[in-house]
């Protein structure tokens, strides 16, 4: 890869800042000063140093975001803002993408990474990764609904959903619930409630497997996964 990309990805600032490090003869490749940002280096075998300090290169990025409403969980869109637009330039250089999808009007836990294999594993139906959502529902949610969710609902298009766990926080003209599903089909939760003639008014993802939405993240904010959170993700990869 290009040395300027490697340095930008390793926390040495923007491409412009990296250029000035190179120009200032502060960067060496295997002991020899390099000034050209387009120089190709192999992060696994080459020794790149900035001011005599070895650059440790992280190939992958793992971020937790509290997705706000109004933006798409996609990398690009001609019309709408995407979750990638919320990232800083440094994170963008890694070219992360969202793991699975949340609807435009859904908030909450979203993982962003450039680790394609991990994204694949976390969203694979075979891995049965649980997703836990908080929702506001139009109308009463009844104990009979809890049973129907648990048995596996038949959605309006005939699809047999896998069993899901519904907890009622409060039931009334507007109800509040927590639902845990193991699937991530298009509009999964909304369609499950439609199957029992209810409408989801508000939806927020709280958990994905053992990853819990960090309550200190305001809407649109993000942070790197902790070592423990990453270890959990890698354990799924190995399963
Ligand atoms: N289920 C939905 O209906 N929407 C989401 O964004 C996530 C799960």
TrEMBL record:
Keyword list, A-Z: Isomerase, RNA-binding
InterPro entries, sorted: PsdUridine_s_RsuA/RluB/E/F_cat, PsdUridine_synth_cat_dom_sf, PsdUridine_synth_RsuA/RluA, PsdUridine_synth_RsuA/RluB/E/F, PsdUridine_synth_RsuA/RluB_CS, RsuA_PseudoU_synthase, S4_RNA-bd, S4_RNA-bd_sf
GO function terms (MF aspect): RNA binding; rRNA pseudouridine synthase activity
GO BP field: enzyme-directed rRNA pseudouridine synthesis
GO cellular component: cytosol
UniProt-listed Pfam families: PseudoU_synth_2, S4
RNA-binding S4 domain residues: 1-61
Superkingdom: Bacteria
SUPFAM superfamilies: Alpha-L RNA-binding motif, Pseudouridine synthase
Family matches, as Gene3D superfamilies: Alpha-L RNA-binding motif, Pseudouridine synthase I, catalytic domain, N-terminal subdomain, RNA-binding S4 domain
The protein's Enzyme Commission number: 5.4.99.-
Protein family according to the UniProt entry: Belongs to the pseudouridine synthase RsuA family.
Protein name: Pseudouridine synthase
Annotated organism of origin: Oceanobacillus picturae
Gene name of this polypeptide: rsuA
């Amino acid at each position: 890869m290009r040395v300027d990309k490697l340095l930008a990805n390793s926390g040495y600032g923007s491409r412009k800042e990296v250029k000035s490090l190179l120009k200032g003869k502060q960067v060496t490749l295997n002991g020899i000063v390099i000034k050209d940002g387009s120089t190709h280096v192999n992060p696994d075998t080459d020794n790149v140093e900035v001011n005599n300090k070895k650059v440790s290169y992280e190939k992958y990025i793992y971020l937790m975001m509290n997705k706000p409403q109004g933006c798409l969980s996609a990398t690009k869109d001609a019309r709408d803002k995407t979750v990638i637009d919320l990232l800083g330039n440094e994170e963008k250089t890694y070219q992360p993408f969202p793991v699975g999808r949340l609807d435009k009007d859904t908030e909450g836990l979203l993982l962003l990474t450039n680790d394609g294999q991990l994204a694949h594993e976390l969203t694979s139906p075979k891995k049965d990764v649980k997703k836990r959502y908080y929702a506001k529902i139009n109308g009463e949610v009844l104990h009979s609904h809890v049973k129907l969710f648990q048995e596996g609902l038949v959605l309006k298009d005939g699809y047999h959903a896998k069993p899901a766990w519904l907890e009622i926080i409060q039931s009334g003209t507007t109800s509040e619930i927590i639902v845990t599903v193991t699937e991530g089909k298009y509009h999964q939760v909304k369609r499950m409630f439609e199957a029992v003639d209810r409408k989801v008014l508000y939806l927020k993802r709280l958990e994905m497997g053992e990853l819990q939405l960090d309550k200190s993240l305001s809407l649109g904010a993000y942070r790197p996964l902790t070592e423990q959170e990453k270890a959990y993700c890698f354990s799924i990869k190995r399963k």
